[in-house]
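Supplementary Methods, section 5.1.

A reviewer requested that the exact input to the structure prediction be made available. We therefore reproduce it here, unchanged from the version used in the analyses.
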Amino acid sequence: MKDQAFDSIVLSTRIRLARNLKDHPFPARLSVAEKKQVNAAIRDALLDTDCGLRYLEMNELSPVEAVSLAEKHLISPEFASNAEGRALLLSEDETVSIMLCEEDHVRIQVIEPGLSLETAYCKANALDEKLASRTAIAFDEKLGYLTQCPTNLGTALRASVMLHLPALSRAGLMPRLSSTIAKL
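The structure derived from this sequence is encoded token-by-token as follows.
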């Protein structure tokens, strides 16, 4: 549910899920040909759904187009700079971007305006469920979802919000935020 009281402070919400296919090494260990096989498996699992996604081979984009996607936070700068064997699934409205063969085989990212954690999570989860119903995902009963970076093990979920700092200051919330961050 969207909380409009925070819309002037919270500019956007992002949910990111990392997933890997069960019987494939992590992307860092794959050849370009193997990355293309992984990309095709993921593309085939998600494009025949009604998700409204289009498939883009990163090496077919111009450098300007890749940098533009990174500047919009739809892909990572590293993903933009090393296009070989990488692909992107992108929704028409650019709220959903799925990086293929970045650090992990799949990086599902949903960005929603304002404070919209539940909405963004539901969209990401629906894509994750479709992917899991059509591919074998790397999962361990003790560790959770297996990811290349150990800090992402478990749910492999990250939730974040982009804040408008002048609005926080004007609302008198900056000292509270600073105190909370200092404790972390």
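The mean pLDDT is 89. These observations are discussed further in the main text.
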